[in-house]
């Protein structure tokens, strides 16, 4: 049989075959580009957990802008991103009227290519360069039509690059005040963005970010997930068994990355034309394992051993954990437990309700039970008496704590 190519993309940072649940955001953005300077969505900030689809949406917004005849420049907010952006702008300024309408040049490539030239470039301000680019746009006949401008996207915003972000924001702020056709979309995880938005005595050009159109990306609805799983399969010439699709939808927990992970594995495991329950079950197990490696493991590695223990203690519950219960299990004071909770909330690991906490990432509870709880407590997870639902209520009851 001639097997069609797997339509799903099981890696972070790649565009999905079908981006579901973001139509409204994209429509608003499209309208803002048409509307002219001052439209709120022209400066947007995408905020959301790892794997929720920030990069995928940024890419789609760039496509929207390109379709509207805009120039797009994309950057990742790593060290030196402003100078790398300047390199991209300078490259555009040096181009003749080649007729291209958009440039998507990797910053790494440009850095190497322009190492010597960039010295002189860096002395020109970002604001001046952007103004020159906008001037060139309106001078060029090809671009001299209504609705074209410059979009800059900056992914993976992080407060450690505060100074450069301020430099960037200041330049953009000036251009916005001058009513120029410029749009900016920034993206980052909440814990990286929160300190960036924190008050800075009013003198902070980051005020600009605070006023941005903030888009909090959350889980998708069941019908959106269903569409995201079903349409690419149908378009690629196969179909889902209804019960299998139902299971797959449920197993994603509304988390965009899981659509791709489950879809990709189910497609691969199925030999026939219709994706059945057996392949789907196998796919769900595989997807959860990959999610563990790609999302849970790195997220947990960023935490202190104490914070991990707090999460491990939470994972003994079936649903939201009472902070007082967790405090008891860890034998710490309520005050200490609330401190843990605050830290973990700020690190995007948990959600915060009154007196309780729950996991922010899907399947993290199961991952902790399978890996961290047994590591920390040194108990084999496969012995039934050690399963979380029959777990002793205090961690000390396990004795051999690892630290
Ligand atoms: N709306 C969506 N519909 C279907 N699939 C999506 C959607 N959004 C994202 N995905 C898929 O989910 C995965 C994760 O998306 P993406 O890399 O954009 O997440 P992210 O928020 O940028 O994560 P990180 O914080 O790690 O950078 C990708 O494989 C992407 O194709
Ligand atoms: Mg991303």
Automatic annotation (TrEMBL):
Residues 382-403 are annotated as: Disordered. Residues 19-158 form the Orc1-like AAA ATPase domain. It holds the Pfam family AAA_16. Residues 394-403 have a biased composition (Basic and acidic residues). InterPro entries: AAA_16, P-loop_NTPase. It comes from the Bacteria. Gene3D superfamilies: P-loop containing nucleotide triphosphate hydrolases. Coiled coil: none annotated. This is AAA family ATPase.
